[in-house]
Structure formats: structure tokens, C-alpha cells
Description:
This protein is of the alpha/beta class. It has 4 domains: 1-84 and 128-156 and 271-472, P-loop containing nucleotide triphosphate hydrolases (Rossmann fold), CATH 3.40.50; 157-270, no CATH class; 500-628 and 792-819, no CATH class; 662-778, no CATH class. It has 24 helices and 22 strands. Strands 2-1-13-12-11-3-10-9-4-8-5 form an 11-stranded mixed β-sheet. A hairpin with a 5-residue loop joins strand 21 and strand 22 (817-819). Helix 13 runs parallel beside helix 14 (349-358). The protein is globular and about 110 Å long.
Amino acid sequence: MQDFEKLGVFYLGREYDLKESKPFEDLILYDSKDLVTHAVCVGMTGSGKTGLCIALIEEAAIDSIPAIIIDPKGDLANLLLTFPQLRGEDFAPWVNAEDAAKKNLSVTDYANAQAETWKKGLESWGQEGARIQRLRDAVGDIRVYTPGSNAGFPVSILKSFAAPSAEVLDDGELLRERVGATVTSLLGLLDIEADPLQSREHILLSTILNWAWTQGKDLDLGLLIQYVQNPPVAKVGVLDLDTFYPAKDRFGLVMSLNNLLAAPGFGAWMEGEALDIQGLLYTPQGKPRLAIFSIAHLNDAERMFFVSLLLNQVVGWMRAQSGTTSLRALLYMDEIFGYFPPTANPPSKLPLLILLKQARAFGLGVVLATQNPVDLDYKGLANAGTWFIGRLQTERDKARVLEGLEGAAVTAGAKFDRAMMEQTLAGLGNRVFLMNNTHEDAPAVFQTRWVMSYLRGPLTRNQIKTLMDPLKPPTTVQPSPPVATATLPVMTPTTPAPTVATAPATGGGAAPSIPPDVQQFFIPTRGSAPAGSTLIYKPMLIGSAKVNFVDTKTKVDFVQEVAAMTPVTDEVVPVSWEDASEADVAISDLEREAASGATFANLPPAAAKAKSYVAWSKDFVTWLYGSQKVELLKSPNTKALSRPGESERDFRLRLGQAGREGRDAAMEQLRGKYAPKIASLQEKLRKAQQAVAAQAEQTKQQQMQTAISFGATLLGAFVGRKGSSVGRATTAVRGVGRSLKEHGDVGRAEETVEVMQKQLADLDLEFKARTQELESQLDSQAETLETIIIKPKKTHIAVQLVALVWAPYWKEGNGEVREAWM
């Protein structure tokens, strides 16, 4: 089985003979890039639907594809139960004691029996413990997140009200959809059924979110409550605010939001990791993660609230990715019942529709599963390119599934044989599925392979805690993962820069007199003043410049904007840029006027002289020349360079994605190259059938059947159903034995078979050599990257501003001073 691990194909099972009720030898290998057009898995309880979907996730993980997994039942955490040694003691903590008692076995004996069952099951499908280890090695980690609970990794929703990415803000329609879904889900959590066009609550909250986000302002529930009390807008539509929604009426909404925030159990929603999708999908080292969101412990309103927020975050992340034709990541949701209904519009439906319609362009594959096919919006699911259909319970279920299959066929421009589909669906049994893939020449019926994860059923919260506690840092509040965005390189001073904010402000007098030829600015304050505190300004020097980094050898040419602040002192050298730190405020946000009622620290005399700023500007250039540099990473294999500000993790991810795209393209070329050769061998088989004698011994017939069957070889399985010139190669091979008995000349047939075997062996060797070459090029994680340092020339540094800036501090009654702009 391991020969095709890096071919970009997923081993899902073997083709199945419905008439004989047994599997063929032909492997079902599913192209990973087919999943960018999404998949739907439908089957009743006991059909094997969960096993098939877990197998799909396992295969994706082996191919370094990360996944976000929404788990309403709690059984997808079984992905953590992988035991390469297949020992009973590994299974023992996870077997069900009730199942052991039913078989009159001790837990230890039952665990040993389960381990033996799993070992034999894997072997029967050509797998072993080494493949389980390969799965574990490919994944950085598997984490179970439990929103509203500390059993697994808690999830903070604070950032869910933060301003979305620029890609979302620049798209008016997407922004409106994001605002609407966020408000609807929040009101649902408050048990308020709100029509977006009629509800005052919905319209007001949408207006507030839209106002804040378009200004780049982040919100949390506390700030949202303040804005409901004192909205930042005077009118809603053409009506005055108090006419549209009087203050006394708004107080009810304020109390509902405040009660939610003050509820004892709601604190768990405020701590933990943020919904940063890039950080959820990849470890800091760039290895793929399986992020499982277990929501079985939540009530219906909480589930809808969280799922909607998560899906909206995925939409925002998706829009920030580059386009690709290869699979980049998976979004899997089990039991989609209620989240994608055919008529109603819950807040989860809109982001799901967006993902199904747009995610393929960004390499995000969406996989949805359900045992209730009548509750799905099949018009929306017509965007799914692959349907996995298992055993269905009612005729109504079959009718709705056929409707969805027909819609998908129409969308793809393919033919649809309804009668054949009905007949096939009627014969499906346990672990037997119909795969209708628009990228294949014809549907296929197959039996799912044995999964590597131990399927013990839903995990309890205590069991999730047992699995996750070793992965948690020794703190109760989990840190947010690093935000993986392509930002400009940070400044790298030659000496460590002290934190400006630690220096206390002194003095407290009136505003000093500043000559008109000296520019001065004020950093705006943020947040509310602490009780009993006063505002005091401290003088600082702020510098802003554009630094152009140019390197002809690597063809690098980009401009970085740098803004730095440093204290102004009464010392002999009043300003030292060596003590500067990165400015925490944008130049465009600086204000011309001080806040009313503020006092000022003493201003050093040098800061009141215009000529001082001329000298400090020159010093600023000298400091930038010596301190600024950009470090780029280079791939020795591909010669690709990292982008300015791109982390090693993101660079490796980009290399990996480019490698997958190249591999998928190369695999298509190989398929086109080898399909005609297999077709040629088919023709030789046909001629051998015509030339054989009339009789053949049964034993020789069976030997012949074994000798010439190549359906399970790597080459035959890979070319599979996608080579239109190949047709049903393995079906022809299976028919040879029967023809030999009726018409064959065994001797001549054996000679022909020997030639065919040699040709197939040569093709297999050639094919494996080519695929191994591609595999070695794909592993960007193991590659040692080179570092390239580029420094600027003085002539490439353009100073934009060097000026006096007043930094605000809160001075509290006990004398403590802290920043007022952070």
C-alpha cells in the first residue's frame, strides 16, 4: 500500500461486486485534487459512513493535508486512537467496559481481542502498524477543541468580533454576509429570533458591527454592550436613533448581552486559543494539524453560534489564500442536520454556501456528512463533485439523494442514468458505498478499507481531557497561536531596544510653548480612563521612513515602511536612536490636538529647536542603515525565495503547496502516458483469448487467472477509471480465465501472459521510479533552507517624518503610570 502514499491519491477501499457480494482486487484510489470540488457522504446509522470519512481524513493527513473537523457527536476524536504497535495495553484504556461485559471478558482480555481484530483487519486490507506510524509522523498534532469547556483546548470567541481581514472588508457583499451571520448567531445565543429586515436588535447590532469593522476597529462583547447603550451613529436609515430604537428599549438588549457576559459558565468562552484558522491548521513548525471541534456538550443555540463563527472565520481565511488547483486543506463537518436545511436560513447556511461555491479556487475541500438526506439543501450541494452514498433507510431518502446526484451531474455537464442509480442504491450493504465522482468516467461501488484509528465510539469529556492535558502548557489560559500573515519585516536594531512604555512620566504641568517650525503630534488614547486617574503626556521623538531593499542577484526589490519612537531626555545626547523601538501607532492616526484636561511632562530644551530635528533626521538615516535588514529563506531544491516578512512556517507551507500542484500535474501526465500502454496490453489479452484451445484444466485456469490479474498493482490502480483509453482493464483481465476454459490454447496463452507480465513489470518499475523522484521533490519539511540577508543603501532610505510626539499615560492615584495608547 505504501507505494502510492505520495502520489496524491487516497486509498479508500476496493471495488465491490454487488452480484457476488464480495470485493474485487481492484483498489479504489481517489485523487486528492478531486476533493477541491467538495464531497458529500450520506448513509444511515450503521452504514459505515463515519469509517469512510475517517479513512478520508487519515489519507489526507498522510499527504500532509490539514483539516478542521466539526464534530457534533464526539466520535471523531477517535482519530487520536492510533496504535502502531497494535498492542492490547494500548487499546485497554479506550475499550468500552460494557462491551467487554457483554462478551463475558475482562477489560484486558477484551482489549487484547480488539488489538488482534484491528491487526487482522488492517492486514486484510494491505496495511500494517508501519502505516499507522506514517500517519502519526505526518501530522504535527491532533487537537480536540471544546468551546465553552476546558476538557480539551478551550476556544476564545473574543477575536470573533475583531475586524475581518482586508479581503473581506474590500468585498462589500462578503462583509454584509459576515456581519449578518455574526449578528444572527449572537442573537440566537440570546434566544432572540431576529429577522434581518424587521428586527430592531438585528439592524442595530449590524449597524454597529459594520461601522466598527469598516473603520478597522475590533470589538468584544463588553465594547459591544457599550455601543448598544451609546451607539456610534446618530441615524439608522433615515430615522433618528431614538426614534428607531429608544434608549429605554435598547436597555433590554443591553441587559440580555450583559447577562450572557456575566453568566458563570460563559467565562470558558472567553479564554483559550483564538479562532486563527492558519494557526489551527498548522503547527508553528509548519506541520499539518487535525483540529477537531467537539461540540457535543453544547446546547443547540450554542452549537449554532459557535459553528457560524467558525465557518465565517474559515471564509475569511480562505479569501486570504492564493489560488490553487490542488488540495490545500479540508473542512469536514459530521451530521450536518439542521445546519444546511433546504428552506430555512440559519446563520450557518450562508457561509457554507459561500464555501461550496468559492472554496475550490483556493484549494479548500469541503466534506459534509449526514444520515438525514431529506434535511439537506440539494441545490447548494449541486456544487459537490463527489458523492459517497451508503445504505439508506427510506424510499424518501433515496429520492432526495437521487435528486442531489442529478443536480450535481447537471452542474458538471455529465450524463445521469437514474434507473441504474436506483438499482445500485438498492443493493448497498454495510461499508459498501457508491462513489459518484464527476471527475471519473463512471460511478464505482466499493467497500471501505479498514481504518487505522480505533473506532471505539464517542469520547467522554474526561477521556478528551486525558488525551489533551499532556499537550497543554502548564497554564490555565492557552496562548493564542501566532498570526500567520505576510507582514513587513520587523526592525532589528543592533542593540536590544528597551520598551518605551516602562519609563514613567514625570512632571504634570501645562502644555509647553512650541515654536511654529517644530512639528508636534499627539498619540490618541485608547479605552476608558481608570477611576481616579489623570492623563499626562510625555515627549518622544517619532521617525518614519521608507527603506528600499534591492538585490540584483536575487531580483529582490521591495519597500518597507519603518516607524520608530525613542525618548527625548535632558542628557548631553538627548536622543539616541539605538534606544528606539517600533512605533505602536500608525503615522496616519496621530492627532494635532491634545486631549482636554491633560497635563504635560517637562520638555527638554533641545526638543524645542527646529535645527535639532535636522540633525536627528540624519542620525535616523544612519541608524536605519546600520540596523535594518531583511532575511529571506531560499529553497535549494526549487530555488524559490521567501517573501518579505514571511515566516519559515508559511514559506514551507507555500513550498509544500507548490510541490503538490507540481506533483498533481506530473501525475496527470503519467496517467496520460501509461493509459495507452495498458490499453495496448488489453488488446494483447483479447488476441490471446481468440488463440487459445477449446479446453483447459480447472487448475491451470485458476493459475492463469492469478498470473494475469494486475488490478491491484500500483500502476493499474493509479490509472484506474480515469483513463478513458483504458476502459475496464481489470474487468477484461478477470474475463480471460473464463475464456481460456471455453476457447483457450493454454500453452499459447501462457506464452502471451509471460510477455504481458514482463511488460507490466517493466511499466511498474518505470512508474515507481518516476513517482519516487516526485516524492523526493515534495517533502519541503525535511529540506534545509538557506538564509539570504539583504541590507539597504543609505541612498535608498527616504525619511518621511521626524517630529515631536506626545505619548499619553494614565497616572493613577497611587502614583503608578501606564500607557494610555496600547
